[in-house]
Amino acid sequence: MSEIELVATDLDGTLLNRNKTVSADDFSTLNTLGDKNIYRVFATGRTLYSLKKIFTDDFPVDYIIFSSGAGILNWKTKELIFTKILKKKHVLSVCDVFFENNVDFTIHKKIPKNHRFVFNKSGKRNNDFDSYCNFYKEFAEPLNQRSLNFGQSTQLLAIFPNNIDMFNKVKDQLSDVKVIRATSPIDESSIWMEIFPKNVSKGNALIWLCKKLAVDVKKTIGIGNDYNDEDFLNVTKHSFVVENAPEEIKQKYSLTDSNQNSGFTKAVEQILNSPL
């Protein structure tokens, strides 16, 4: 056990199953890791608001890298220990590109209120975007294009209905920001484009956290399932993706079982060489 100091995992599609819950085996593994003084880190695109809707205060995790690396929370103390913000000029320049390409997008407030946002609809059919806005409708307002005075932001989100060509076209027009690709957790096919400050990623946030905790990155395990996990899977020494990951990602990392079959636990057991 002493060979590993930290285990980091993505949530949706990795630790969480289709019911958005954690299996009994994975829950037990998280507790065992804690008993052995191994740091447990969740690395997710979810906001703090979303996290607090699904996890209790005593859930067995130590730190959460949230909003794709824009923030880090000490789960036990609920202290925000790291945040990054998009400058107003970058928000406006990204909006210009989105308007030019007739893209559906949102602009989110600063952490810790980045579950609140304004949205712009192109008028094209986009069920995934509509579902997203409807799910957070109490926190969403239409964007007034005549007065773009939104100021600083944590992130922007654009949703492309399974159109990788349009995604790449828009990405090529963006500079001075970080563009992160993710598969929609809603319809599991639409492509999400997350916009953050240039140096934001799950990987950079994990490096920062390891330094703060004096953890040797050569003694870490990472488990993910999607494109937005590659940044941190390229940091962890032992990196896995679950069976339900896209094929092109499965070619790059070690493979574990699916999120429906406690792939998190089976990945950890492979490295620790013992059942948990």
Brief summary:
The protein has 9 helices and 14 strands. The protein is of the alpha/beta class. It has 2 domains: 6-83 and 200-272, HAD superfamily/HAD-like (Rossmann fold), CATH 3.40.50; 88-197, Hypothetical Protein, Haloacid Dehalogenase-like Hydrolase, Chain: A, domain 2, CATH 3.30.1240.10.
Would you give an account of this structure?
There is one protein chain. With 276 residues, the protein is an alpha/beta fold. It folds into two domains: 151 residues, Rossmann fold, CATH 3.40.50; 110 residues, Hypothetical Protein, Haloacid Dehalogenase-like Hydrolase, Chain: A, domain 2 (2-Layer Sandwich). 29% of the residues lie in helices and 24% in strands. It has nine helices and 14 strands. Strands 5-4-3-2-1-12-13-14 form an eight-stranded mixed sheet. The protein has a six-stranded mixed sheet with strand order 8-7-6-9-11-10, sandwiched between helices. Strand 12, helix 7 and strand 13 form a beta-alpha-beta unit. The longest helix has 13 residues. It is globular and about 60 Å long. It starts with 5 loop residues before the first strand and ends with a helix. The model has no long low-confidence stretch (mean pLDDT 94).
Please tag this protein with its features.
globular; alpha/beta; 276 residues; Hypothetical Protein, Haloacid Dehalogenase-like Hydrolase, Chain: A, domain 2; Rossmann fold; six-stranded mixed beta sheet; eight-stranded mixed beta sheet
Give the helices and strands, then pairings.
Layout: E1 6-9, H1 24-35, E2 39-43, H2 48-54, E3 63-66, E4 71-74, E5 79-83, H3 88-100, E6 105-108, E7 117-120, H4 127-135, E8 140-142, E9 156-160, H5 164-171, E10 177-183, E11 191-197, H6 202-213, E12 220-224, H7 230-233, E13 238-242, H8 247-250, E14 254-256, H9 263-272
Parallel strand pairs: 1-2, 1-12, 2-3, 7-8, 12-13, 13-14
Antiparallel strand pairs: 3-4, 4-5, 6-7, 6-9, 9-11, 10-11
